[in-house]
Amino acid sequence: MKHPKLTVAACLAALFLLLYTCVVIANNRISHELERRLKACPLPEQTELIDSASFAGKMEGNGNGMQWFGVLLINSKLDRDELLDYYSAALSPEDGCLLRVSRQETPYIFDGANVKFDGFTDGISAYQVNLSKDSAVGTETSFWEWLLNSDLRGH
After folding, report:
1. For 144, left (φ over 0), alpha (ψ -120 to 50), or beta?
2. Which of 2-11, 19-28, 68-77, 137-146 shows the lowest mean pLDDT across its residues?
3. DSSP label of 153
4. Could you tell me where the beta strands, DSSP code E, fall in the chain?
5. Residue 114: what pLDDT?
6. Within 13 Å and on the Cβ side, how many CA atoms surround 110?
7. 3 state DSSP class of 4
8. What is the Cα–Cα distance from 140 to 155, expressed in whole angstroms?
9. Domain residues of the chain, as ranges?
10. For residue 107, which of 2, 85, 121, 146 sits 20 to 30 Å off, Cα-Cα?
11. How far is Cα of residue 15 from the mean position of the Cα atoms in its chain?
């Protein structure tokens, strides 16, 4: 073997890339699970599902740390408070999850981010139902949370 240091460096780089890929996949899985929980909840009366999405990364706020989102775009004759009451009772958000319902007036899911609902059209009574979790850097309670926060999308 001519270059043992080069071989060790290449193995360490491959290990780092493998670990980072696993972290990205784990974070995506968490956000997909939030979306799945929302979609598994029956829709309220006079409501139709238009689109859904999931995201992992830092989409709202300042600072470092991962955020995971499951989001629904719905068309409903119910108002925001009725929808919030319905989804709060149906989902019983746990594990530090935050449930929000807001009017959706543009196709963009997050202010300042270039991610949007494909199914959005003007003129409908659209609402965004958002189930999210976050983990700020420095507040981790386990090695697993620290590892999840090492995803560059959270910084």
Report:
1. alpha
2. 137-146
3. G
4. 47-57, 65-76, 98-103, 126-136
5. 78
6. 20
7. helix
8. 15
9. 4-154
10. 85
11. 27
Query: How far from 130 is each of 5, 7, 101, 119, CA to CA, in Å?
Result: 49, 47, 6, 16
pLDDT value of residue 19: 87
In this predicted structure, the answer to whether residue 45 has a pLDDT above a threshold of 90 is yes
CA max distance for the chain: 72
Q: Which long-range contacts (CB under 8 A, 24 or more apart) does 57-61 make?
A: 57/27, 57/151, 57/153, 57/154, 58/153, 58/154, 58/155, 59/110, 59/113, 59/115, 60/110, 60/111, 61/134
Of 65, 46, 29, 41, give the one whose Cα is nearest residue 129: 41
Q: What is the DSSP letter of 42?
A: P
Across 113-136, average pLDDT: 86
> Could you say which DSSP state residue 105 is in?
-
The residue written with tokens 């068309």 in the block is 75
What confidence score (pLDDT) does residue 73 get? 97
CA distance 104 to 120: 9
